[in-house]
Specification:
elongated; binds zinc ion; mainly alpha; 2 domains; two-stranded antiparallel sheet; 2 strands; 6% strand
Length: 175
């Protein structure tokens, strides 16, 4: 069918034809007629688009979605900014985002997160983490995919803090 045929159709006729072709694509033999119907559908859509008629999604819909998502992101960032504060623990490097009310009460003027404060206040047997220790510089070689998992997992934590947690966790199991 030539696309002239589609250009003379009303919108309703086009839509009916569009649906008919789709039905034929679904019911036709993939080895025989289906290709031809798919081709036909393309011709119809092109002819319709030239008239500003879009079947399925308009090309603007994706852009609109993108803009809406960006606007939403901006709003939630602004909301976070006014409502939340971030505290970074000087011991374990953990970064904690809390409401300003909680920040004022629990974190203002403090150096350590609650976990680490606990340990400073007297470490009980077998519990908690040693807060400080001896620093040694090491280079670690690991397969690339291990580093990828570590990068994904550590979030805001410093690499050294993250590895320290891993090692201490393991040592707690052994010791
Ligand atoms: Zn901490």
């Amino acid at each position: 069918m030539a696309d002239k045929f589609y250009e003379d159709m009303t919108v309703d006729e086009l839509r009916a034809e569009y649906e008919e072709i789709q039905r034929r694509i679904e019911t036709s033999d993939p080895d025989e007629d289906q290709k031809g119907w798919k081709q036909e559908l393309k011709i119809l859509k092109k002819a319709a688009e030239r008239r500003g008629i879009y079947f399925g999604e308009s090309p603007w819909a994706e852009i609109e979605r993108y803009l809406q998502a960006a606007e939403q992101d901006m709003k939630s960032l602004e909301a976070l900014d006014t409502q939340k504060k971030t505290f970074v623990c000087e011991n374990c490097g953990k970064s904690i985002s809390v409401e300003s009310r909680i920040y004022e009460k629990t974190y203002r003027g403090e150096k350590y997160c609650l976990d680490c404060r606990h340990m400073h206040g007297g470490r009980r047997e077998g519990a908690g983490r040693p807060s400080l220790g001896v620093t040694r510089k090491v280079s670690i070689t690991l397969p690339e995919e291990y580093w990828e998992v570590i990068e994904d997992d550590r979030g805001d934590m410093k690499l050294s803090a993250y590895l320290r947690e891993l090692i201490i966790g393991k040592m707690d199991e052994i010791l």
